[in-house]
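Notes, p. 3: input format for complexes.
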Amino acid sequence: MLELTDLHVEYEMEDGGSVKAVNGVSISLEEDKILGLIGESGSGKSTLAKAIIRLLAKNGHVPEGEIDYKGTDLTELSDRAFRKEMRWDEISMVPQNAMNGFDPVYTVGDQIVQAIRTHEDVSKADARERARELFEQLGIDPGRIDDYPHQFSGGMAQRAMIALALCLDPSLIIADEPTTALDVVIQDRILQTLRDLQTEFQSSIILITHDISVVSDICDDIAVMYGGRVVEHADVGTIIKEPRHPYTLGLRNAFPDIEEDDQDLISIPGTPPDLVDLEEGCGFAPRCPFATDECWDVTPEPTEYDDGHIVECHRADEQELLTEKAKQKET
Ligand code: ATP
Ligand code: MG
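Output follows (331 residues plus adenosine-5'-triphosphate):
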């Protein structure tokens, strides 16, 4: 249903330079699937999401690439057509900070009702009823639809934002870190709710997260982002059991202990690549324990291994050796 081809996103800076936040991403997402998008802070996850739903910051733009959604290249649509036909109707987003998704001066219910009525010809009463039902499904007391956003706790705002994202029954929902900053019990409940709603509404979800335990639980596929590129993409089992990219191998450390909080990816030493002055070579080479001269000099191309397992690494075909070495390093 969604296919990104060589997508680039840049942010212009005041000094004339530009941040290449997404730098040639090609991935696809099938219908009824949950795709986990993981990667450390600054790797371009939110930028990729916002480019799809066209909510980039003012200084951001898409200089190159295609976003094919059910056969339409979204980059070719006018803003007007996009707002009218795509956003909320077809593709919706739960932003990284849910509170920011609501306008503080209107009640949460009014905003959901307005979203529904902007796109569908229904009465106010019917729209309200739908909002109440969604609240109920998401475990919020429907009586609270007349509350203002600030009256909601973080977890409730997150759920209300999911209600807003679902109110027009979109085919694709992008949820950006929907559980960060929430306590573990609420996190689990929200994710379970997302999974249930995905089954019920038969929508696809792109779930952005730092938390590896999250993706392994509920996602079908995982795309690993590093320095503005997707460096590895496969089904969840493959990513966990047979990763080929050294960055993903490094993340594996975080898998066994899914009970522990703070499974951030920042445990891999070193700093991410400079996105303003991109250099030739693999962006991970400076942090990679397996980097060779080739890695420093030549940017790796995406290579497909068995069955949709795509990796950007010169040494990806030495999986067994690298896994063995990574294990030795751990002990
Ligand atoms: P996080 O996990 O912290 O949310 P992320 O993977 O979502 O990180 P992005 O927010 O997409 O990362 O940012 C990617 C890069 O683009 C970062 O280097 C960030 O500083 C930069 N960036 C984001 N927004 C802008 C902007 N409006 N102007 C300039 N640079 C930006
Ligand atoms: Mg982000």
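The pocket of adenosine-5'-triphosphate (ligand 1) is lined by residues 11, 19, 21, 39, 41-47, 57, 59-60, 96, 210, 275 (CB under 6 Å).
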